[in-house]
Every structure is written in C-alpha cells, then in structure tokens.
Amino acid sequence: QVQLVESGGGLVQPGGSLRLSCAASGRIFSINRMAWYRQAPGKQRDLVATITSGGRTNYADSVKGRFTISRDNPKRTVYLQMNSLKPEDTAVYYCNVNLWVGVATPSYEKDYWGQGTQVTVSS
After folding, report:
1. Residue 2, class by beta-carbon neighbours within 10 Å (0-12 exposed, 13-18 middle, 19+ buried)?
2. How far is CA 67 from CA 45, 52, 81, 103, 108, in A?
3. pLDDT tens across 67-87, in order?
4. What is the pLDDT of residue 66?
5. H, E, C per residue of the chain
6. pLDDT tens figures, 7-48
C-alpha cells in the first residue's frame, strides 16, 4: 500500500558531502513526521534527524551543524544533506515516515521504513 524508496548513499572521503533522498508513494492521505535513522555495524539504530509536517527540525547532537533535513511535501520526499562527513558517520541510513493511509479519507496511521542505504566515509 505504501512504499518508501531511498537513494543517494555511497562512498565518500572524510570532509565530503552526500545527499540522501526518500520518496513515499502509494495510498497516502497525509504525511506527518519524517525522519532519518542510522545503524552502524554491531550497534543499535539511532535517530539522526526529524522534521514535522510544519517544517520543525531536530537533530542528534553528533550531526548538528553538519546535517540538514528537509522535505518536499508535493513530492512526498524527505532529504538528508550531509556535509563535513566523518568516518564515524559510516552506517546504513534508514528513512522513517509516519503517515495516514488512505485516499479520499484517512483510514489509519502507521510508521513505514525505507530499505536502507549504505553510507561509507573512508579515505
């Protein structure tokens, strides 16, 4: 019913930049919060950044000043601009979207996850 497709990961040198995208499609009535998480090998999945439907953002302390989350509501897409990347940013990045499923009217609220995209920061 709802799909999230991520893109934009890859290998980058320390100090470099990457931009992740996550596009939602399907039976979507409205989108609430959109977020990015990351999971490094052997570690738990951690919250990186969130953005509300009104555009309010919040960041993990480890990425403040380097990462920027944004959203394009007509395109149902959330972005994560990552600058000044460090080796410790290496992880699989997942988008998470909270939305109302439905067409003409909302049916139910649910969280969805993207498939994950690998970001590797290494020289």
Report:
1. middle
2. 17, 16, 6, 33, 32
3. 999 999 999 999 999 999 999
4. 98
5. CEEEEEECCEEECCCCCEEEEEEEEECEEEEEEEEEEEECCCCCEEEEEEECCCCCEEECHHHCCCEEEEEECCCCEEEEEECCCCHHHCEEEEEEEEEEEECCCEEEEEEEECCCEEEEECC
6. 999 999 999 999 999 999 999 999 999 999 999 999 999 999
